[in-house]
Amino acid sequence: MQDKDFEKIALSIFHYQYEHNSLYKRFVNLLKINPKGIQSIYQIPHLPIQFFKNYHIKTGEFNEELIYTSSGTSSSQTSKHFVCDKDWYLNNTLKIFEDEYGSLNNYRIFALLPSYLERKGSSLIDMVDFFMKSIPSKDKGFFLYNNNELAAKLLEKSDKKTLLIGVSFALLDFAEKYSFPLENTIIMETGGMKGRRKEMTRKEVHHILKKAFQLENIHSEYGMTELLSQGYSKGNGIFNPNQMMKVWAREIADPFEKCKNNRVGAINIIDLANIDSCAFIATDDLGRVNDNGQYEILGRLDNSDVRGCNLMVL
Questions:
Q1: Does residue 47 lie in a domain region?
Q2: pLDDT tens for residues 64-86?
Q3: Exposure pattern of 263-291 as b/e (b: 16+ CB <10 Å)?
């Protein structure tokens, strides 16, 4: 999809959601923004991601097919994404993955996602499970803490490429117990220590995994409860744009000002798949976007970032 086509669709969705999403309309009106004056995707008001924790974000009236929820402790409030059509979500995830990696028929898929398997409402589990349903049973599997079985499956000879997708803490736990060279294998981390290990940078995590399994690159998946699309990185934490998502950075001191390319800012996302919720989200992630639209996620925005925004390195 060309940039001009993406912009045309995004502007159309903006006007549709302004008219049919009462919460988003109130948000835009409180900002005293005239929708008719919006001529660029960078002028579209992006809804703070925290709204998904406190409000029902719906465009139009529908009985949701399911609700995806974010992970969190019992004392924290979780985000909720009300999904009108599960098949819309799943088919979108499949197209994005196959556009980036080719047909699923070429893969064995193993998942190491204990923190997601141990709760309900995970969009990531539904996505991976959907991927697995299209391949033979011998070539797939979810693994909770049965690492011996996973190690044996990874070492099996196969004419297919192997994809091991896992949450960061579980992959690191696995790497501590097993260290062997993997051939024709993609290890893809989904981020997150979930309180199980000390926080580490993506670079540190990748270094450990590359060394343990003698791989040149570690891949990454970037997704969240509030999105119905994902981004993928084939190495070094550089994520490629896809046809459904536009990622750009806003100035931390001025949320309505777009950062120049290659400058660190807070991440805004347009997800065209979020037609029934809100397609325009101001996340709490820090990152930067290069001239080709590729992006890096560098950390999380907090109060200290806002207070010290004038100290950000260009």
A1: no
A2: 999 999 976 444 689 999 999 99
A3: ebbbbbbbbbbbbbbbbbbbbebbbbbee
